[in-house]
Amino acid sequence: MDDKLLFDLMAVGNEEAFKDLYNKWKELVYCTALKFVKSPFDAEDILQQVFISLWISRGKLSNVENHQAYIFTIVHNKVAAFFKIASNRNKLYKHLYESGSNESRITDEQLDFNERNRRFQLAVNQLPEQQKKVYQLSRLEGFSNAEIADSLGISINTVKSHIAAALKTLRKNVGILLALLGS
Predict the structure, then answer these.
(1) Which of 77, 82, 71 minimizes the C-alpha distance to 28?
(2) What are the φ and ψ backbone dihedral angles of 109, each rounded to 5 degrees?
(3) Which of 12, 22, 142, 150 is 20 to 30 A from 99, alpha carbon to alpha carbon?
């Protein structure tokens, strides 16, 4: 089947068309992602995110004219989100490390990468359920605000509000964690 037909069938919710499109494009999408992220695990994750995005936005697929460009635009966006998330995570860890005072400096021995990640996940898990879902889809999965709004059935402004509130809470909780670690 050609991509136009598969996109049209997916637009009306045809799961077989989705499977056919996935089987047709998975290897090329995976290899493209792998070329950029250099990790088979991360490339597989991006592959899944690309097809989740396609399924979430399936109602718009019948309007797509250039199917290959559409798919690779999603790949590009997911790869960019991957690097943005990695960069933000590294900045956060660097900030956590550098923000300790002289008497409560956090050393590498006290707080290795896994421990920092565990503590950060504890802070994320303390968020209200909807805020946590929105935050994870946005910051950890790389979904756009529109994709999140579509998948959760909420407005884009609500998504933005949840993200802002989650970030405010996480900043506060990370500060508390730093104080606890320093004592």
Answers:
(1) 71
(2) -65, -35
(3) 142
For 104, other C-beta atoms within 10 Å of its C-beta total 13
Residue 48 token pair:
């899944």
Helix axes 156-182, 67-98, angle to 10 degrees: 30
Across 74-102, b (16+ Cβ under 10 Å) vs e yields bbebbbebbeeeeeebeeeeeebeeebee
pLDDT in tens, 113-154: 666 667 777 778 888 999 889 988 888 788 889 989 988 999
Look at residue 117 in the predicted model and tell me its pLDDT: 67
DSSP string, 14-69: -HHHHHHHHHHHHHHHHHHHHHHH--HHHHHHHHHHHHHHHHHTGGGGGG-S-HHH
